[in-house]
Write a structure and sequence with these properties.
Layout lengths: L1 H4 L6 H12 L4 H11 L3 H10 L11 E6 L2 H18 L14 E6 L11 E5 L5 E4 L4 H15 L2
Parallel strand pairs: 1-2
Antiparallel strand pairs: 1-3, 3-4
Helix pairs in contact: 2-3, 3-4
Length: about 150
């Protein structure tokens, strides 16, 4: 990184973006390396990495479940769907990825399809797969998860 950006802290966000585009998240070792290169504390690098929603500190699952938290989706039950997904998938506090690495669950901003609320989007880690589901309920989410778990085991 230093050869590309120098040792200037003003390039920290670009450095983090480059690392995340390479790994899909920000590995601890990479954050420590940036701190060393910039001559700063790891806590300062982590402060920036956790402030911006775009950065992930853990490796995402094979499928990322994006739960819309826009007004229409929130009012029609997506806060409850989000809690259901976390519980059903056994996600511990502070974690967004399942132990088996198949699913990650994240809150998302409005997808712009409020008439279908509540909405959940599932994307693959590599971005090659994207599917939008409207009118989701816990029962529908169970079926969707089962279908995607079968896809993951192929």
């Amino acid at each position: 990184m230093a050869s590309r950006y120098g040792r200037e802290r003003r390039y920290l966000i670009r450095m983090l973006q480059d690392i995340q585009s390479t790994y899909g998240y920000l590995p601890q070792e990479a954050l420590e390396a940036i701190a060393r290169e910039l001559g700063t504390h790891l806590s300062k690098v982590l402060t920036v990495a956790t402030f911006y929603h775009q950065f992930r500190l853990e490796k995402p699952g094979e499928f990322i479940i994006l739960v819309c938290m826009g007004t229409a989706c929130h009012l029609r039950g997506n806060a409850e769907n989000y809690r259901f997904l976390r519980t059903y998938l056994g996600l511990r506090p502070g974690r967004s990825t399942t132990e088996d690495g198949v699913f990650s669950v994240e809150k998302a901003r409005c997808f712009g399809c409020c008439g279908m609320a509540p909405v959940v989007m599932i994307v693959s880690r590599d971005g090659s797969y994207r599917r939008l589901y409207g009118g989701v309920t816990p029962a529908k989410l169970r079926r969707i998860l089962a279908d995607h778990r079968r896809m993951a085991s192929r």
